[in-house]
Write a structure and sequence with these properties.
Blueprint lengths: L16 E7 L4 E7 L4 E6 L4 E8 L1 E6 L2 E6 L3 E4 L5 E4 L6 E8 L7 E2 L2
InterPro entries: Cupin_2, Flavonoid_dioxygenase-like, RmlC-like_jellyroll, RmlC_Cupin_sf
Organism: [Clostridium] hylemonae DSM 15053
Pfam family, one: Cupin_2
Length: about 110
């Protein structure tokens, strides 16, 4: 068991990107923030499934070429091998939760 406060971790890119509160042993849990116009490179996972739960704002998540515009309260579940791309096309900040399971040390394949 452990307890952690979000303020104890930093976003990967300073003021944006994922902020992992837990990495393994069975799943990852991250707070993710993107400012207007920011994105995260298209990728997929061979083994891990990924969920995004939108806390604040609006974001476009493109899965296998289909755009899904999500807002606060929405959840999207992405299966292994589904290519997904996250972009904040809104004028505000988006904040969401990301979970990945089952935990793998390395299971992200970037796509051009």
């Amino acid at each position: 068991m452990f307890i952690i406060n979000e303020n104890e971790k930093e976003y990967r890119f300073g003021d944006s990107g994922p902020k992992y509160l837990m990495k393994g042993p069975r799943s990852n849990f991250a707070v993710v923030q993107f400012n207007a116009g920011q994105d995260f490179k298209a990728h997929y996972h061979n083994i891990m499934e990924e969920n995004f739960f939108i806390l604040e704002g609006e974001v476009d998540i493109i899965v296998d070429g289909t755009t899904h515009t999500l807002k606060a309260g929405d959840l999207i579940h992405i299966e292994p091998e589904e290519v997904h791309y996250v972009v904040n096309n809104s004028s505000g900040t988006v904040k969401m939760i990301s979970t990945l399971a089952p935990y793998q040390e390395s299971d992200k394949i970037e796509v051009d």
